[in-house]
């Protein structure tokens, strides 16, 4: 269904807030992710991760059967032993405040590190962590089925501070779940399948990073400073993160 047809439809999520759909991707067109909506990180990007993120390579990022597939593969590629994909809306769609819902199924391979997260669009100017980071969902095989949500920002005097929560989802690799977050001036609330498990309230303006436009990221990392703590199961590849839809709402009143 075209966004122009559904953007006017409001979704009542609570007695106090009516949410209006402002951006979505339901992954109905086979092929590469829609270039009007998604861009790519490329290369060896962060956290000492093992994968090379590729650009518009169907082996690593494609739409088929009504799902986005981010696939990590064990293969030699530009000096790395693994490839994968990290897509984002930077320069294509940013927003300030709202509700994010991502319906996804996660991989079970040891060493995999899928994530659904957001970064401040001003990161090229102010850097990290001043730009703010909102991790809606992260999962690592050291703690199978534990879904982590974390916020990162700068702290007074410099440096970095973070706080997070977690929830157990035992069928994370067999079933799709909706990983989400509501974001307002008063703080952030995180949920899985509409069940809340972590809140981060507004704590004053001095270090608060979540008052700016942000963009959305979906990626499947391999190894790295957290994902690779227990090594990588080299025989269990390729592995996938599958996504049925991404939906972003903003309050209509």
Structure explained in plain terms:
With 253 residues, this protein is mostly beta strands. The chain has a single domain, classed as Sandwich (Jelly Rolls). The protein contains 3 helices and 18 strands. The strands form 2 sheets. Strands 1, 2, 4, 5, 6, 7, 9, 14, 15, 16 and 18 form an 11-stranded mixed sheet that branches. Strands 3-8-17-10-11-12-13 form a 7-stranded antiparallel sheet. A hairpin with a 2-residue loop joins strand 15 and strand 16. It is globular. The N terminus is likely disordered.
At a glance:
This protein has helices at 3-6, 123-126, 224-227, and strands at residues 10-12, 18-25, 39-40, 51-53, 61-64, 67-77, 80-84, 86-88, 98-105, 112-120, 133-138, 146-154, 160-168, 177-184, 187-192, 195-201, 214-222, 239-251. It has 253 residues and is mainly β.
């Amino acid at each position: 269904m075209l966004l122009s047809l559904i953007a006017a439809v409001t979704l009542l999520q609570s007695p106090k807030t009516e949410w209006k759909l402002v951006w979505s991707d339901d992954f109905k067109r086979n092929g590469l992710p829609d270039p009007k909506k998604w861009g790519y990180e490329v290369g060896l990007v962060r956290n000492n991760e093992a994968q090379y993120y590729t650009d518009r390579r169907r082996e690593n990022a494609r739409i088929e059967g009504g799902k986005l597939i981010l696939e990590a593969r064990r293969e030699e590629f530009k000096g790395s032993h693994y490839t994968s994909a990290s897509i984002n809306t930077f320069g294509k769609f940013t927003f300030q405040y709202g509700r994010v819902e991502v319906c996804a199924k996660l991989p079970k391979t040891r060493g995999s590190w899928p994530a659904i997260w957001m970064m401040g669009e001003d990161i090229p100017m102010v850097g990290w962590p001043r730009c703010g980071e909102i991790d809606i969902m992260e999962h690592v095989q050291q703690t199978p089925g534990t879904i982590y949500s974390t916020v990162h920002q700068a702290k007074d005097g410099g440096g970095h501070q973070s706080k997070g929560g977690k929830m157990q989802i035992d069928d994370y690799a067999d079933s799709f779940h909706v990983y989400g977050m509501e974001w307002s001036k008063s703080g952030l609330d995180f949920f899985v399948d509409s069940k809340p498990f972590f809140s981060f309230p507004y704590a004053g303006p001095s270090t608060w990073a979540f008052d700016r436009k942000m963009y959305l990221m979906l990626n499947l990392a391999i190894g790295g400073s957290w994902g690779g703590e227990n090594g990588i199961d080299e025989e269990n590849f390729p592995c996938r993160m599958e996504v049925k839809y991404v939906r972003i709402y903003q309050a209509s009143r």
